[in-house]
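> forwarded from #structure-qc
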């Protein structure tokens, strides 16, 4: 009964967001279509892919008031076999005022063995340019083959705060609590210090620290009882071809400590997005995660999307 009430609440929250965003549309909307493919592969022989068609209804470009719909297939596989879901997803976001913004989504999944419904909702509060707060709640899939086979999902509850100390320095803190359907509980603390030199608008540097604890270690998904990582991070953004395209690189390198072992950790990803003309565009991305070099966990992922704007 508790799960049904929670699901009804999230559907209600999403519908309220949807009603507000459509009722307050002040200009002729813009439309965008896309076809996308995403994949991830790792050294545990886990493979995932998403193939989807989507559409955006942009009601206010300046405030990012929009409704995004998507449907497609989510595929999972490993050495033991594979599982496929057909899914639909609707996301809506609305800036209510200079201070408040609502976002929500709902994503039903369908298959012959399990048909769960996932969701997310968040309230973003920006009382001034110096401060930003976010309250969020979501239900999602534990996204590997062993967890899918066991029908595991998790509920998350989060709070985050950004403090712009100066035009060049921002502090970010976040806390997330996750409850996994197998009974495991996870607490996550995140801290970031970001430095954006005014002389180099294309560059951002920072320090990232994350700590989390699980009640127990599951054989089906990565869940050390203790985990701490510290990384130096860097972002480089650059417009290209008369601002028609842009490229963005994110990378980080550091060290992690767990109750299993202590190792180097690093990640890198790049995104290239732009428009060939007033209608056709492309969005490409790819990334790599390394949890310790040769013999340790590594993951590769990428996506491609073809865009069409009316």
């Amino acid at each position: 009964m508790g799960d049904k009430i929670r699901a009804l609440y999230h559907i209600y929250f999403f519908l309220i967001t949807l009603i507000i965003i459509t009722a307050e549309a002040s200009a002729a909307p813009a439309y965008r279509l896309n076809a996308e493919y995403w994949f991830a592969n790792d050294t545990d022989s886990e493979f995932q892919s998403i193939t989807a068609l989507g559409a955006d209804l942009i009601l206010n470009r300046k405030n990012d008031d929009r409704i995004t719909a998507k449907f497609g297939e989510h595929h999972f596989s490993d050495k033991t076999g594979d599982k496929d879901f057909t899914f639909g997803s609707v996301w809506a976001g609305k800036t209510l005022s200079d201070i408040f913004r609502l976002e929500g989504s709902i994503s039903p999944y369908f298959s012959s063995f399990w048909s769960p419904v996932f969701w997310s909702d968040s309230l973003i509060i920006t009382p001034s340019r110096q401060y930003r707060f976010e309250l969020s709640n979501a239900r999602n899939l534990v996204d590997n083959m062993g967890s899918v086979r066991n029908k595991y999902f998790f509920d998350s509850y989060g709070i985050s705060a950004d403090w712009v100390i100066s035009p060049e320095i921002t502090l970010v803190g976040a806390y997330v609590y996750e409850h996994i359907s197998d009974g495991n509980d996870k607490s996550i603390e995140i801290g970031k210090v970001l430095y954006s030199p005014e002389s180099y608008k294309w560059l951002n540097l920072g320090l990232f620290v994350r700590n989390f604890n699980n009640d127990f270690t599951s054989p089906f998904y990565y869940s050390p009882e203790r985990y701490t990582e510290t990384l130096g991070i860097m972002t480089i953004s650059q417009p290209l071809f008369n601002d028609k395209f842009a490229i963005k690189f994110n990378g980080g390198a550091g060290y992690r400590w767990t109750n299993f072992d202590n190792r180097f950790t690093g990640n890198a990803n790049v995104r290239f997005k732009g428009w060939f003309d007033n209608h056709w565009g492309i969005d490409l991305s790819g990334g790599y995660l390394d949890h310790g070099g040769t013999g340790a966990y590594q993951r590769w992922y990428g996506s491609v999307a073809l865009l069409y704007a009316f």
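QC bot note: The CA atoms of residues 214 and 225 lie 5 Å apart. The radius of gyration is 20 Å.
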